[in-house]
Amino acid sequence: NMDELYERARAAKTKLGSRLFILGHHYQKDEVIQFADATGDSLQLAQVAAQQSADYLVFCGVHFMAETADILSTEKQAVVLPDMRAGCSMADMADIDQTERAWSELQRVFGETIIPLTYVNSTAAIKAFVGRYGGATVTSSNAEKMVRWALTQKERLLFLPDQHLGRNTTVKLGIKLEEMAIWDPIRNQLELNCPADDVKVILWKGHCSVHMNFLPKHIENLRMKEPDRRILVHPECTYEVVHASDDAGSTKYIIDTIAASTPGSKWAIGTEMNLVNRLIKDYPDRDIVSLNPYMCPCLTMNRIDLPHLTWVLESLVEGRVPNQITVDTKRTKEAKMALEKML
Ligand code: CIZ
Ligand code: SF4
Q1: pTM of this prediction?
Q2: Can you tell me which family this protein belongs to (predicted)?
Q3: Domain at 104, CATH number
């Protein structure tokens, strides 16, 4: 019964007091978000985690975000993920063995001319790899800035693990689609669209299965029916979708854009369902719909729910720390180098 769970979670939270801090990602369900001490996108939550002194950081988001919180928090703080099955399929598309293999092949083709960048949506092992080779992490809010920086360091960059954010960002900086090569981690193979010497960017062939649900045909349909509805999407959508939209930007950018829009304005948004629904609820005087008429949830994010949150809070009250996320010391050190360049 949700009312009872609500009361139990509230009571446990009160008992834990300042020893507890709950972080909630914008894609989380309302039943979880109502308990969050801070809400944000992955960048904002990483910054919050780095500043908190509470003993327990309960992270309502996915595994890589909890890892990042552990990397940026002190050793005595415990980061807890309410459900261990809350992973990110995009982060899982770049495993460290595949990446090491790709790196040696890319070194063979391009020599020492590559700097690695990874989207924060990646495992701690990948962040450590990137830190070890002088690269940095990026988020969708600062990807442009970070790519510009990377290209002052080396001639070309390897962008992990989201090909779409990589393509959408670098195309904006004037890099041509032909100058982007693709690394296919399944085939363990480089796909070139121009001579190797002219390659500027190597995109890892990963994607977000949630944002892949927004398609050019959704935009065509809307444009036909409602030409005055503005289309705003996340850059994890494909290049074709971003290109055909009116605007694209990070989670924070989407929220800020709607907040700054005029009452009565009409929007179609291409991002995760819980966020779109929250915008619809928070801005009843705007006309907001999902770009894909079938709302697109991130199923793994949604594994964090009130029953799991209640269970971890009550466990903490009883002195047990379930589902603790820990990144080992060596990885923490290397991953921190990559994160700090960005932060
Ligand atoms: O798709 C995600 O996981 C996003 C957009 C995370 C974030 O907050 O940047
Ligand atoms: Fe990963 Fe996509 Fe879910 Fe974000 S929305 S956590 S990128 S699967």
Answers
A1: 0.96
A2: Belongs to the quinolinate synthase family. Type 3 subfamily.
A3: 3.40.50.10800
